[in-house]
Amino acid sequence: MAGEGKGEGSLRDTLGLLVIPLWEALLRPAAPRDPDRPWPPLPRWARRRVEGRVPFAAAVQVIDLLIALACYFGTYSLLMTEVAKRDLHPWNGELILSALVASVPLALRERHPMAAWRIFLVGMVLVGPYRWTDVTFAGGTGVTGLLVLYTVAARCSRSLTIGVGLLSMAGILIIAPENDAGTSFLVPLPLVVGYAVQYRRNARRELAEQEKRHQEAEAVLTERQRIARELHDVVAHHMSMIAIQAEAAPLKVATVPDETRGDLAEIRATALAALTEMRRILGVLRTEDGSQTAPQPDLGGLEELLEGGRGAGLTIVTRLDAGLAGLPSGVGLTSYRIVQEALSNAMRHAPGSKVEVAIRREGGILRLDVVSGPPADGRRPTPSPPGAGHGLVGMRERAAMLGGDLVAEPTPEGGFAVRATLPITGTAA
């Protein structure tokens, strides 16, 4: 039974290889043409006159129309001569239809190649010029048939092209006399040439796309390396100077209060931590795909972040859920960065204030609330440097990337609140 089922499957697959191309040839349309096709290689004098002025597709359409007119009048004249020679008296409309079969498909092949082939095939079977002559492809029908078959193969899929070839050969065997049956073996020639042209065109297009992607990636890497150099030369240098000056300041004055020494030590430690983070960012910018980087921070490093805020003079109160372990990496990183930015804003705009940090997990949602109070008595906010103000935008973008949202607004007490909602379910770990 198993062998019988396998045999039935193989027979079904074999029939499918034959039936599907025929079905596609009868019903499936051709791929849309490319209106921006480049001109083929031309002599220099011709290239200067046509490239950039006349689209290649428009030029082909005009040439097809001219050839179609020539085929129509040539075929009609030939049929009139043959009819007179044979002393036949057909209705003139029959001769016109026969001439149209030799010309209309050629006029349509550029825009509608499959419709052109179907009109040609049906027209040849029903009212082809062969009815009035001794040869199958009288007048311009031979030229029209070859060009239409070439266009089909150059524009359509391999399966559809095979179906067109099989039906074309069958049509020739139906309409051709026995001594002209060998004409059917001419059908594969334009199909092979057209498919080879399509294959070469697709290969060149794919190569051009790969080259474009390579150039874009190289440009991105170059820009990232330029940014990395600027960060190293400017920001990292200044952070190093801050750390050195904070370390050297107590050595210049003998009577420095212990509290000031502690603040300077905290400034030095913060500057060194910023340098470490800067080196990690520089490593990301200087690598092509960013794969050779240190692990990204998450809520596992939240306590260290909060201690840094307390060391800067903030009074931080936390309300943290117990189920914060095992969060997806994207959620953990975004949560850490939002809290980090909110604390940085509190240090800058409300020094010495009380900050409440609440993080809770409600089903598939993670909620973060960082609410800071007004500045402590006697403390003045640090003015933002020119060009600042991107922190809130960055936090909103991080939340939006995960499908969440973030609201940042002043509080009635004179403080500032940052509230974020991040979906957990459906986020890649």
Structural class: alpha+beta
Largest sheet at a glance? Answer: 5 strands, mixed
Gap between N and C termini, in Å? 47 Å
Q: How many strand units?
A: 5
Widest sheet, order of strands: 1-2-3-5-4
Average pLDDT reading: 80
Identify the overall geometry: elongated
Work out the radius of gyration.
39 Å
Percent helix:
55-70%
Q: Uncertain regions: pLDDT < 50 for 5+ in a row? A: 383-388
H/E element string? HHHHHHHHHHHEHEEHEE
* Beta-strand share of residues: 5-15%
Number of helices: 13
Question: What does this protein look like?
Answer:
- The chain is α+β, with helices and mostly antiparallel strands and 429 residues long.
- Among the domains are: 14-186, no CATH class; 299-375 and 389-429, Histidine kinase-like ATPase, C-terminal domain (Heat Shock Protein 90, 2-Layer Sandwich).
- Helix content is 61%, strand content 9%.
- The protein is built from 13 helices and 5 strands.
- It has helices at 2-27, 44-50, 56-86, 92-101, 104-108, 113-127, 141-155, 158-175, 188-252, 258-286, 302-311, 329-349, 391-401, and strands at residues 315-320, 354-362, 365-372, 405-410, 416-423.
- A 5-stranded mixed β-sheet has the order 1-2-3-5-4, with helices on one face.
- Helix 6 packs parallel to helix 8 (158-175) and helix 12 packs antiparallel against helix 13 (391-401).
- Mean pLDDT is 80; it is low at 383-388.
Structure in a nutshell:
Among the domains are: 14-186, no CATH class; 299-375 and 389-429, Heat Shock Protein 90. It is built from 13 helices and five strands.
Features of this protein?
single chain, 429 residues, alpha+beta, Heat Shock Protein 90
